[in-house]
Amino acid sequence: MKFDNCFTSELYSLADEIKRETFEFDKIKNNPYSFVSPSAYDTAWLAMIEDVDTQKPMFQGCLDWILSNQNVVEGIWGSHGDENGDETLTSTLACVVALRKWKTGSLQVRKGKRYIERSTEMIIGKYINPKKKGYCPRWLVLMFTGLLELAQQLGLQFLFSARVNKMINNLFFQRQEILHREKLMDDRYNQRSLLAYLEVLPSTLYTENQEEIIEKLCDFDGSLFQSPSATAAAFMLSGNTKCLAYLQSLVQRCPHGVPQIYPMSEELIKLSMVNIMDNFGLGEFLSEEIDHFLLHIYKSYKTEDVERMPIFSKVDQLHKASLEFRMLRMNGYNVLPKSFCWFLSDEEIRDHLETNIECLFFVMLSIYRATDLIFPEECELEEAREFSRKLLGKRQFIDEQMVPTSHIKHEISTPWMARLKHLDHRMWIEGKDSNAFSVGKASLIRINSDKLTHLAVRNFELRQAVYRSEMDDLMKWVKKSGLKDIGFGREKTTYCYFAASSSTSLPFKSAANIRKLMAKSGILITVADDFFDEEGSVDELKALTKAVLRWEGEELKDHGKIIFQALDNIVKETAETCLKGHGTDITDHLRNIWNETFESWLREANWSKKGHIPSMEEYLRNGMISIAAHTIALPTSCLMESCFPQHKLKPGNYDTITTLLMTITRLLNDLQSYQKEQEQGKINSVLLHMRNHCGFEIEDSIAHIEKIIDSKRKQFMEHVLMDEFNELPKPCKDIHMSLCKVFEMFFNKKNRYDSDMDMVQDIKKALYDPINIPK
Predict the structure, then answer these.
(1) Terpene synthase metal-binding domain: which residues (predicted)?
(2) What HEC string does 225-238 produce?
């Protein structure tokens, strides 16, 4: 399939627009708040502040924002990602109250009022069931009741049914329980403490605690918990000049609607923006800008003195540092775990994380994701992974209405190494909370990502169309080559192409040949492996291996002839493509790689037929070749890079990264195939280890092999991501990583490759199912 020029030009045009809006004139550097979604709720509270001299709104821009930003069809204000309606209800109520206070926007007030009257029963009513025990989230109880009281004081009357009035009375009862149970002034700095909701609390609480509240305002930056709404209320009650300075600074930085929290770490906002671009699979469109951004981050990379920071600054620093670590290490920069693992020896921050997991969910998730990239001997990362995994696993303590627990399940259930990029991109694009990076008082804090989402969707759709076309071409090749109707073994054309297309991070346009070559090689390896394992007689296997060694298949018959001709076709196609693209003839190297692979298959067949039990060393020396991962990695690497070192193609002289790939993939396969091979009277590393250690159970040997894989995986990660360990070009290392992830995916907890059904849903999502974007 040829690229639709109209379609691709649309993508690059949209990407250019994003570049201009994000990176030109250092906009992302100079005004990161412009990328944060404004909070209608907090903006409404600033709009309510009166200038005592003029008796007009002190922040007219906030009032104008409310007038301009109602969803006029539904009559609402609020977040795009609020599926439950909770935040929309309180935001709409706050905006209606602000407009009512200034006797403006009568049309908007009517529409908002109608929405509140129509939706309150559904929104509040969903909490009235046995599981919820009739209790709404604490923040919703406080905000809704406080705003409703204020609306009534301004003469706003809502027409609710008797059922809804009963629900509302119950909310006021719940509020009384909260006010009776909790202290206004929390001993610890906690953005969820009762004082953080000052704007919706009875004014008597302020009067009773005035001195302590003013003291708290003076202790920090003039704000209450960096909350614009709570600080707006504090100023209206106290007239405190430090409060006023905070609010003026806020509106100056955020003139188009204010965020839920201010100030925020500006570096964290920037990193979150670029992280979303990467999660959405937009690196190819924005690679130059992202590379420049990461280089700037690295050059200014330093260890912060966190000891004297207040706790909220420590939290921001930890979030930022863990995100920086992951992004920089993923892109080859030499960064150390101590840049964020300092929190492990800080009792205050650990206690704060453990007791506030709900509002610090994104911090813990960022730490956990950073620990995906562990190198050998990095004990700090191991400890950080265990700590973050334990906290993220406490989902029963997390309000699922507030926090995207699906992200936790995705990260913890399937290791990063076992996830393919194309499917990961889809998960992030479809996720309603994929643009969120922090938790506010009432909802998630988000990056404005509409254009990024649109570009990501169109890009994913283009890829699906191209992949389906390439899949059709591959089906024709399999049919023409005779492999499809060979009459035995596993038919894995779809699996192989799915793996090839969904795993690579290579430039999309130039990688078509590589995807097809990887898939063809995988298909042939599967058929040939089955021929040696199950179908071929001793004479047929020897004849085929001899033909491959001589590279002469004229005397072959039947299955052997079909396999050899398909192999010859793949080698010729690869060699011709490499010669045409890079001027290098690698025919002999390709034949030698396949030679040793066929010899390894024959050796294993002979072992099986003769009942020979090799030593572990002998088995692994042969098994890392017979798994045949290098027969895919090395030829495709040659297609990617003209400067691929030719001496690294010689059997016995492979780069360390290649031998690590070969070892890991063999052991991964062995973990999930030992039962089948035991039944067939064959041997593998798990069975050999148990055989060599008297008294060991199978579980002991599995644990031993898993430990070896874990060690090799860390070495492999270091060799892929760091330049100083080998001379392979980055695209070639990426090929090795992609192939390793494919094997991790196929053999994660079970043998998915041999299953007819386990991969079906993933394949449909990757190639066929339309992408589903939440409204």
Answers:
(1) 480-714
(2) CCCHHHHHHHHHHH
